[in-house]
Amino acid sequence: MTTTREMLDASPTAVPFGVAEVAAAVDACLDCAQACVSDVDADLAEPDVAEMRTCIALCLNCADVCDVTARLLSRPAQCDRFAVDHLLRACVRICTTCAEECARHADHHPHCAVCEKTCRACIQACSALLDAEALEELQKLGGA
Amino acid sequence: MTTTREMLDASPTAVPFGVAEVAAAVDACLDCAQACVSDVDADLAEPDVAEMRTCIALCLNCADVCDVTARLLSRPAQCDRFAVDHLLRACVRICTTCAEECARHADHHPHCAVCEKTCRACIQACSALLDAEALEELQKLGGA
Amino acid sequence: MTTTREMLDASPTAVPFGVAEVAAAVDACLDCAQACVSDVDADLAEPDVAEMRTCIALCLNCADVCDVTARLLSRPAQCDRFAVDHLLRACVRICTTCAEECARHADHHPHCAVCEKTCRACIQACSALLDAEALEELQKLGGA
Amino acid sequence: MTTTREMLDASPTAVPFGVAEVAAAVDACLDCAQACVSDVDADLAEPDVAEMRTCIALCLNCADVCDVTARLLSRPAQCDRFAVDHLLRACVRICTTCAEECARHADHHPHCAVCEKTCRACIQACSALLDAEALEELQKLGGA
Questions:
Q1: Measured between CB atoms, which of D7, D46, D111 is closest to B7?
Q2: pTM for this one?
Q3: Which whole-number Å values give the CA distances from C78 to A44, C75, C82, D53, D59, in the listed order?
Q4: Which chains sit next to C, with 3 or more Cβ pairs under 8 A?
Q5: Range B98-120 burial, b when 16+ CB lie within 10 A, else e
Q6: D144 pLDDT more than 90
Q7: What is the ipTM of this complex?
């Protein structure tokens, strides 16, 4: 069990989207942010840095958006579903673009291969929250 | 002229949405993030801290979202319009909720009055970018 | 093996202090930052929020300093030992103060108990880097 | 008068180091962080990106350390002088290295010239706080 899961389990309020799902998304976002920060550092030290400039730029945005998404999801008591929804969509988009660019360098730069993997895990975890939200909306409509 | 404007003027690439508009939004986001960070600190030191808990929670999210919006807007060369659009919408929403809560305390807590003012300035600057984007979309449709 | 460890193993440059030690410190910092962010959210939702104000304030600083320490340690290629040393000292100090305050609430607030535990793990991991650095300095002096 | 100054003036507690000095340091840190974020983006878009890799790496660390220094200085009520002192020293060091590297590119990259200027302003504002602190220590010793 991760720290995130322990912290959310100990929250005095309900956790929107579900504890397991949010904990998974927070951990995936933090993992992805870390990988992107390290990938930029590694890319800058490679001989083919000129070919890595798009990868670097995408990783920079990805790290920052994942970090803030993890922060907001770590605060269930004052969750703003509308804002979190927009952050999740931004996060999934940026992780997707970043994963695709990392994939282009994955065979010659092992750090890009790891970064791609964590971006894809983050896409999956954040998409699961968006799906849960869509299902909830649907159920509300069905119940009306 | 602010540093942000000087930096964006010196960018080797075009600045989506326009330099003046983006510089204004970055500066408004940074101002708002600073005000929210200080407002939390001030709220925690007030005798009526129990009444300030919503204000504190909203300011925390507002500071983080404004910070990341400022960072992404400060990177025009690798701008992802889709992601920036979602961040701007999250930012306008969170600033609006935060401004409304600060307004409830503005008469007895001067720090909340200042924070409300900077939230409202941030809403205006970010909304201007969203309006510019909507107009651009409309013109594309009109030109088709 | 964590993502952090995989990323640092894949770094094209040497990792100052050692890969295992830095990966452990980065993961401990990220864990601690997450716990502090969630602990603030939980504290704000507790009936005794007025008694939690010091805890909240300390967690806020702790989250931010842990986040930046994790970021700098995640960039081994351009490591500034002098700056990292100061960040580690700030981090150990803030985690210590935060752990002590969380300990005061650990019996009635499980989230504070988890937060205390992650602060202590972070102190240990960051102190290990400071110890490794001190040993290195000593060996340099001995070899002179 | 900046927002930072207004917020600190409205703080219910005393501001260690003095309001004017801290407000100046916060604003200089936020300015410098913004300039560094934009400078990285601009460097990555330059034809001589391979020559800019050190500049990019230094700006990344500088932005993150300035951001966290601004956050901690924006929270006077729960100020930890020991931690803030270490952050200020890390900040002055990183800004100095960053300014020196930007200076090497300032004649052919106007964005590096602006970035160097804001780094130097940040060094000055943070050093003023360290000087004020040293003077305070001296006065304590003199009074004993």
A1: D111
A2: 0.97
A3: 9, 6, 12, 10, 11
A4: A, B, D
A5: bbebbbebbeebbbbbbbbbbbb
A6: no
A7: 0.95
